[in-house]
Amino acid sequence: MASLPRNFKKAAAYALRDPALQRALLNVKRGFVVKRESARANLPEFDTLRDEARAIRDHTLTHLDLYLEAYERKVTESGGHVHYALNAAEARAIVLRLCQDAGVRLVTKGKSMVSEEIGLNAHLQASGVEVVETDLGEYIAQMRGERPSHIIAPVIHLNKESIERDFRRAHPNLPPQRKLDQAGDLVAEARQILRGKFLTAEAGITGANFLIAETGSSVIVTNEGNGDLTATLPRTHIVIASIEKLVPTLEDACLLLRLLARSATGQDITTYTSFSTGPRRSSDPDGPSAYHVVLLDNGRSEMLGNEFADMLRCIRCGACLNHCPVYGAIGGHAYGSVYPGPMGAVLTPQLQGLDRARDLPNASTLCGRCEAVCPVAIPLPDMMRTWRERDFVRRNPALKERLILRVWAFAAKRPRLYRALSRTAARVLARRAGQRGRLRRVPFLKTWTVTRDLPAPQGETFHDIYARRQRSKGQ
Ligand code: SF4
Which of 6, 29, 173, 398 has a 20 to 30 A CA-CA distance from 53? Predict the structure, then answer.
C-alpha cells in the first residue's frame, strides 16, 4: 500500500481522498453498527448487564493488586509461569528469551493488540524467530506489512480485489487460473498455508480477552478457531496481556463475554470462546508442555491513579470505533496509532505522550455516540476533553487565542451581556449570509470554515426561542 503521511491531518486528508478506502468503510456501518443494534434489541437486559459489567471492571481495578496476586498463584499452581513487564521493551525481551530458551524458530500467533502495542513481531523476527499471524485479517495485514486498521477487524479497510492481489504476490506458487474472487476462496488458500505452520511451530502466542483470577485461566474469543490451534498445538504457549484484563471470577468473565460479542460483531456469542489454564496435564489428550503469561503494565498503573482510570474498563469491543463519525470517514491508519478511534484517542496520549499524539483527542466531534454504545460506559468524550485541556495549557497558546477566550469567559459569566452579544452576533451573521443562508471564511473561525460553509443563524438565539416558548406556555 502507499504509505500514509505520519502527520495526522495530512493522513486524514489523504484518507478522505481515497475512494477504495471510502467504499470499504461503508462495511463498518453495514457489518457492525446494524448488527450490534439488532443484537442489543434482542437482549432486553442489555442495560442491566452494562451496569453490572461496569461495576465488575471498577471493582477489579480498585483491587487489581490483590487479583494479580490471586491470578499468579493459580497459574503457578496449574504448572504455568507469570512474568511481569513494566514496559514494552521488557515484554519483548521476556518473550524473546522464552522463545530462545525453548529453541523456538517458528511462532504462530493469534490476534493480540498488546503484541502490536509493544512491536513484538519485528523484535522476534530481527532475532531470527519467524512469526506467522494466524487470524486471517492479521495474516493479510502481515502480508502487506501494515498494522491493523481496526481493533477487531484488522483489514476492514480493504476489498476482496486488493486482498486477491496480495495473495498472488505473497504466494508465488499459487496457479494463476485458481479462482480467488470469493471470500471462501481466500480463506481456503490461507488455511492451506497456515495448516503447515500450525503443525511445525514450536511456540504459539495468543492475547487474552480476559484473565480469570479465580482459576488462573486466560480467555480468547475468535471466529476462526485459529486461537485454539495456536494455543494447543505447539509445545510452548505464551499468553501476552495487559494487567487490566483481569476479572475476579469465571462468572464475571461470562457476563462480560455476553456484552463483548454483541457490542463487537452483533453475535450472541463468538464462534469460539476458549479457556486455557496452565500446560497440558497427564490426563489431557493434547496441549502445550509449557505455559507462560507475560503481563504488561506499560503505563496502566499510572492510569489507575489519574483522570483516565475509567479507560482501563475497556474490553476492546471496537463499538466506539464503529460508531465514530471521524473513524467512519478516515479509517484506522490515519490515526497513526495501534489503537484508533475514540478509545485510541484517549489511550494513545497516555502510551506515547501528548506531544506525539495531541491531534488524536482533537479529532473528535464530541458527539457522544462512543460513550453511548460502550458496553462498560467509559466517558470517552470527557476524557478527550481532558486531554484537549492539558494540550491547551501545555502548548502556551498564542496571545490572540488567549485573549479571545478571556473575552468569551468574561461575557459567559455575565448572562445579560452574553445574551445581548449573541443576539447581535446572530443578527449580523444572518444579514451577512443574505439569501444564500451560508457563510464562508468567517473571521475567528478561519480553520473551521476554510473547507466548509457555516450555516447562518436563523436570526434568533437559543435563549430567545426558549424564552418565547416559555412565555407562550405560561399564557
Ligand atoms: S472504549 Fe468501550 S466501546 Fe470502545 S473498545 Fe473499549 S469497551 Fe469497546
Answer: 29
Ligand 1 geometric centre to CA of 427 (Å): 42
How does pLDDT run across 397-449, given as a tens digit for each residue?
888 888 988 999 999 999 999 999 988 988 888 888 888 888 888 877 777 78
Of all protein residues, the one whose alpha carbon is nearest to atom 4 of ligand 1 is 320
Q: Give domain limits for the chain.
A: 43-301, 400-474
Residue of minimum CA distance from atom 7 in ligand 1: 314
3-state secondary structure of 14: helix
Residue 315 C-alpha to ligand 1 middle, in angstroms? 6
Is the C-beta atom of 316 inside 6 A of ligand 1? yes
CATH assignment of 43-301, among 2.40.30.10, 3.40.50.10420, 3.20.20.70, 3.30.2350.10:
3.40.50.10420
How close is the Cα of 288 to the center of ligand 1, in Å?
Answer: 32
256: CA distance to ligand 1 center in Å?
12
Which residue lies with its CA nearest to atom 8 of ligand 1?
317
Q: Can you give the pLDDT at residue 1?
A: 42
Distances (CA, A) of 238 to 26, 95, 296, 448: 36, 8, 13, 49
What is the C-alpha separation between 344 and 335, in angstroms, rounded?
A: 8
Average pLDDT (328-346) is: 96
C-alpha–C-alpha distance, residues 167 and 155, integer Å: 14
If you measure from the C-alpha of residue 236 to the centroid of ligand 1, how many angstroms do you get, rounded to a whole number? 31
Closest CA relative to residue 212, chosen from 357, 411, 75, 87: 75
Ligand 1 atom with minimal separation from the 380 CA = 1
- In tens, the pLDDT along 278-316 reads 999 999 999 999 999 999 999 999 999 899 999 999 999
CA-nearest residue for atom 2, ligand 1, is 374
CA torsion angle 213 340 338 241 (round to 10):
0
Determine the atom of ligand 1 nearest the C-alpha atom of 343.
Answer: 1
Which ranges in 363-461 belong to alpha helices (H)?
A: 369-373, 380-394, 399-412, 415-433, 446-449
